[in-house]
Please model this.
Amino acid sequence: MSECTHDCSSCHADCDSRVNVIEKEKPHELSHIKKVIGVVSGKGGVGKSLVTSLMAVDMQRRGYKTAVLDADITGPSIPSVFGLKERAQGDDNGLYPVMTKTGIKVMSINLLLENPSDPVVWRGPVIGGVVKQFWNEVIWDDVDFMFVDMPPGTGDVPLTVFQSLPVDGIIVVTSPQELVSMIVEKAVKMAKLMDVPVLGLVQNMAYFQCDDCGKKHYIFGENKAQDTAKDFSIDTVCEIPMNQKLAAACDKGAIELFEGDWLDKMADKVEKTL
Model:
């Protein structure tokens, strides 16, 4: 017997050292997706959908073909942020994503429901199946960067995404609280278990900047994002302040009209994965 290379995916031998390899789901035959970036957090309410939307807008402005797969099936908010009200359409070939005003392709469960306010009361395996369908039954066409808006935590859906989709890296989102270190650690450890690189850390609601004097006020206490990132060897850190204009843009479904440079460093990092 030849020497083991420990690459079980290319080996058909049945031995004691064999590791079960979960094959990635293939996208629709008419989809050509170059990079998949997950946006995750160890807890809810920290702004994953906001970061997902801002990253998609930023990369689209840079001239890339961008898409958003809303994997937060039970709490979808991406269509609202982009002001999407039409339902997704399909034909014999498959399902088509809905296009935003600037050409970002979006697929979300709210684009399929008859009433967007209807609750999705499904068990984990069913939800995981829908996420897979969004990947392999939606005709995404050509996409340079797809951002996957994950549900909070480390449960069924994040596991399904990591195991089924070819995730090239994740962005960890957090908020300025004492629990920040533990929250980040959960997400980072899961990424390591799945052998997915952590591209950077985004701290949402990091500070308030006075309109009159321009001074930053860290109203939730001393900023610990840099220290937390250093603890986990994360080299790219961005901060999003509490900003009334940004909140208003999200409420109006006009996120694509908002101008802000808070995530430029993260966009640079994502761009380098291509």
